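WARN retry 2 of 3 for item q-0093 after timeout on previous attempt; input resubmitted unchanged.
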Amino acid sequence: MLKQTSLQYPIFSPPLQNGGGSTADISGGNAQSPPPAQCKSCGKNVFVMEQIKAEKQTWHKNCFRCKECNKQLTLDTYSSHEGVLYCKPHFRELFKPKAVVESPDPEPSKCCIIPVVPYVFTTNRNTFQYVQELTVDQ
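OK item q-0093 returned
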């Protein structure tokens, strides 16, 4: 003869009202979920499935674009300067080190001309002597 066994199903009890226990309230009644983040580019709500987080900001995947060429970027293909997004080629082009070229000295301006004093120091007497006309050979 076969012995019949009863099937046992798990019994769920409602959450405890006075705290204690380890049952969680999954109904969402008292739990506050954070509001969706705002896209830095367009200002609209960004939901988790369509967001990119970079530079401590949130963007839609479609709004995460280079400022110069408007190409859509990813976390691997972007660079930023002061919070502005660029693709790597434009970032290198715009912010590469630039050579400083010194131009030859320009003509001295009037503020830099030193007036010629009509006195000349003479070595034969170790004195200053007044000179009527001072000429300079060039």
